[in-house]
Every structure is written in structure tokens, then in C-alpha cells.
């Protein structure tokens, strides 16, 4: 069904490591990482048994979903999808998540992660709306890309019995699975980031100013309430979707290079077509890559990962995030700001092994 070389087999044996090298997987699979990593992780979580379908159907589904990602996108391609699924799998292995998620929750979380950006055009929803793209017309300029990703996931899945991983579920289980997948994909829309984070923090994380336990998540919250499980699943896929700043340095920098390149292409096209420039900071002539990453961590990542770590107890997230942040600050101060600068550095300083992270290691009080 799927050919696995010895090198690929060795790599996939560590598929649940937070230090997993997704870019080596991309190379070894000739840009088909989702198919291979998906089979390994779906097997680990026994997704076939949960969905009552055979592995061939799962393989077919992964193949079709991957084929509908665009390899020419610098960032939003199937390697990103595989990376998000791998992060979600990491989170699902934590005891807090195991106590909360039933097998169908686990399976649908992995499915949503795989498909959450399917058929991404490499342009933002705002670009699609500004350019009167047919998808923006179809979805009335509201949650354009995420609506498309969710709808296409089910169109592809239900359109062929050989691909339909849900075909053997009873009606009620399918309804739950469909609701889960759609809700998680829609939760990746960044315009609602602060709303999702605030709801999660308000339910799960205390904020006793000056307390030793500030930011910790209490155990007495009734986790099993359906609405609370939904909040956790949304936060999980969000933290998987933007885990790049909390990965080992070499991985973090390559993702930063890729997203920057993709955003540059959008700005180039907006200028060429006389459209509003959605992200003026991503102009290839003026952009500081370190500053863009520092701002992303300050504005989006830091508070979300502080809350997520308090909930699932995964301190390596904060360790890598803070180490990478310090390195971006250093690069900014040293004047290594352009995409060309970063690419040159990637072949030298970033090829060194990343900092080892102990199970309980964190960096306090930067």
C-alpha cells in the first residue's frame, strides 16, 4: 500500500517527538509527508478501529486530501498540514488530554488537523475578498478560507466510497464527527483568535495576581461538560496550527522563512493588481523577518502558549518559544533582517543542534 524506505522508517519511529524533523520527512517522501506521517499517527491512535473502516480507506483519504494541497505554496502546503497533525498528536498524548478526549474526539482532531488548510490558495481571506475571488463571493466575505477548507473536506470525503472514512459510522456518531471537524477547522481563523483564547482562559485558567499559581489551570473545572471539551479542542488545533515559534530553532526559522516568502508573494500581487495591501509589513523591500516573528510571539503566541502549557503541562513549548525569541532579538540587533540574510544564516549557524530540552525544563522570567 505504501513504500517505506529504511531512512523513512527510522524517522517515523520518532513521529511523536516534539523535535520531529518535518522537513526531512518532506524530502524523504518527495513532498508527500501527510500520507506517510498520517498513516503512522492514525495507526498509533487506532483511528481505523474508531471509525470502523479499513486502513486502505484511510490511506486513500490521506492521499486525496494531500493531493488537494498546493505544493507550490511556500507555507500552506501538505507539509504544514502534516506538521499541524503531528503537533495535535503530541498534545493528545498528554495525560490531561487523554483523560478528556474519547477515541472519536482523538480521531476527528487528527482529521481536522490534516484537512484544516486543504486547497489553500497561498493568499489570505482578505486578499480573496479584495479581489472578488469566487470563494469570497460564495461565502459572503465571512470566514472565507476556513469555510472552504471545511466544506471541501467533506466534499472530497463523501464523494467517493473508496475515500469515505466515515461510511461505517452510525448516524449519531457521524453527526458528532462532522460537527467536531467543522468546528475545529473554523477555529483556526485568526480573526477570532482573541475570542477563543479569552473563553479558554476564563474557563480553565486562574489569574490570581501575585499568586504562586498565577496562570495555572485548576483541576476542579468540570472538564467533561461538552462546551468545555469544545473549548479545549479549539485551543488544541489553534496551538497546533501556529506551533512554529515553539519548535526547535532550525525548524522555527525554516517555517518563518516559508511564511514570509508566501506573504511577500501576496504583497507583490496586491501591488501589481492595484489591490489594498493587507499586510504592509510583509513587503520584500522593507520587511524585517526577526521583527515580524518577535511581533507574532508578543501579540499572538506568548499568552496562548502560556495558557496551553498551564493546561496540558508541556513546558518544552515555553522553553523553545523563549529561546527562539531571544535568538530573533539577537538577529534583529545584529542587523540580520532580510529574507536573504536569514537564508544565508540557515546554512551555517542554524544547522547546529538545537538546545536539548529536558522533560521539566522551562525558562522563567525573561
Tell me the number of strands: 0
Unreliable segments of 5+ consecutive residues: 208-214, 352-366
Look at the structure and give the mean pLDDT: 92
CATH class of the largest domain: Mainly Alpha
**Termini separation:** 49 Å
Radius of gyration, CA atoms, in whole angstroms? 20 Å
EC number: 3.1.4.53
GO molecular function: 3',5'-cyclic-AMP phosphodiesterase activity; metal ion binding
InterPro entries: HD/PDEase_dom (IPR003607), PDEase (IPR023088), PDEase_catalytic_dom (IPR002073), PDEase_catalytic_dom_sf (IPR036971)
Protein name: 3',5'-cyclic-AMP phosphodiesterase
Polypeptide structure, described:
It is built from 18 helices and no strands. The longest helix is centred in the C-terminal third of the chain and has 25 residues, at 249-273. The relative contact order is 0.10. The radius of gyration is 20 Å and the shape is globular. Helices cover 61% and strands 0% of the residues. Residues 208-214 and 352-366 have low confidence and may be disordered. The protein folds into 2 domains: 1-197, Catalytic domain of cyclic nucleotide phosphodiesterase 4b2b; 242-366, 3'5'-cyclic nucleotide phosphodiesterase, catalytic domain (Catalytic domain of cyclic nucleotide phosphodiesterase 4b2b), CATH 1.10.1300. It has helices at residues 6-12, 22-28, 33-44, 47-51, 55-67, 78-92, 95-98, 103-115, 125-130, 134-138, 144-158, 171-186, 193-204, 226-241, 249-273, 289-312, 316-334, 339-346. Helix 8 (103-115) runs parallel beside helix 14 (226-241) and helix 13 (193-204) packs across helix 14. It has 366 residues and is mostly helical. Pathway: Purine metabolism; 3',5'-cyclic AMP degradation; AMP from 3',5'-cyclic AMP: step 1/1. GO terms for molecular function: 3',5'-cyclic-AMP phosphodiesterase activity; metal ion binding. This is 3',5'-cyclic-AMP phosphodiesterase. Pfam families: PDEase_I.
